[in-house]
Amino acid sequence: MTQQILISGNDAGQRLDRFLRKKFPQLPLTAIYKFLRQKKVRIVRSERKFHGKKEDMLEKNDELKLFFDAEKFGTAPEKKPVNFEFLLKSPFFRQHFQIHYEDEWLWVAEKNAGIAVHPGSKTPWGHSLIDLFVATVRSEDVSLPEPKLVHRLDKDTSGLILIAKNDATLRKLTALIRDDEIQKKYLALIKGKLPKESGEIRMKLLRTEGSKFTKIQTSRSAEAKEARTLYRVREYFPELDASLLEVTLDTGRMHQIRVHFSSLGHPLAGDQAYGDFAWNRELEKNYGLKRHFLHAYFLKFRHPETGKILELQNELPTDLKKMLPSK
Question: Structure pTM?
Fold first, then answer.
């Protein structure tokens, strides 16, 4: 069975895998990635044909040719009417709706640890960060454009995150990220002391989709993606045998910071996927650390509409700040 889909202006600027997830909500994520690996998605663009990869960015008038039968997976459950007003009045909204910067084109939100940035199989609608911004807009007028995430942060990572108010701004901000024109810096606490005060980590990363989780690992295979992480040591704490780093992403791969430092033998404090579990238990017992120590504290970019340089910073949240020995 072959299906053809023409990409409209509203759908342009999205990653291919995210478009497929939205178009076929009944499909498990593992099925979507399987179809992409099996080259069952073809993109026709300006008379050029190529097999789609999950990270491909869609363009207006692209034609997708799908060589799989989505109906075999049944139909998506019917969506219930959304009660935006209820969400806006909820304790969840009051706790997590935090704006660091806003203008008519975009928001920079302050994300708390413990909240997913978007709905998923384990996060129903109304329990993610983007839902709060959608509710804010749609409660006034359901015909207004739906806000979209420009980039992602892990559930347990706190800090600054960009949200576009319309599709045109989303495309421009996504292009800035693709061209490495948005500078993102993090504060991270890692185990031990690095041999250099500053440096660069260059290790290719391979993403594999499991039945229950996504695994990222360093790899030299042809399928692995180049990943570069820059760091500078801010301070070493002998009491913790830990170093506070300022980390700059030169590429933006999934779990990049966590995997890179873990591969060097200096895992992030509190990291339950790639970390030192015995050390994590100590930190939780003695300091109450219940998540990985990673905070997106800095964003700098040229505003895609005004041309103004925005430079934004966000302090460490209380749960991480109290970890650090005071002088």
Answer: 0.78
Give the percent of the chain with pLDDT over 90: 61
Quick one: pLDDT at residue 15? 83
Question: Could you give the CA distance from residue 110 to residue 148 in angstroms, rounded to a whole number?
Answer: 15
Q: Bridge partners of 195?
A: none
Catalytic residue among 11, 56, 154, 156: 154
Edge-first strand listing for the sheet containing 48-51: 3-6, 63-66, 41-45, 48-51
- Cα(279)–Cα(300) distance, integer angstroms: 34
Fold matches, 84-176 and 180-321: yes
Taking the domain 180-321, which CATH number applies?
3.30.2350.10
CATH C-level class of 3-73: alpha beta
Give the DSSP letter of residue 15.
B
99 SS3 class: strand
C-alpha angle 193/198/204, rounded to 5°?
Answer: 90
CA distance 246 to 72: 48
Cβ proximity of 292 and 320 under 8 Å: no
Please, where are the H alpha helices in the chain?
Answer: 16-23, 29-37, 84-88, 91-96, 129-138, 167-178, 256-263, 277-287, 318-321
The fold of the 84-176 domain, in CATH, is Pseudouridine synthase (3.30.2350)
pLDDT at 277 over 70: yes
pLDDT tens readout for residues 283-298: 999 999 999 999 999 9
For position 142, what pLDDT does the model report? 77
**Active-site residue, 154 included:** yes
Residue with tokens 């992403």: 249
* pLDDT, tens only, 53-81: 887 888 888 999 999 888 877 655 555 55
Q: Which two tokens stand for residue 308?
A: 């103004």
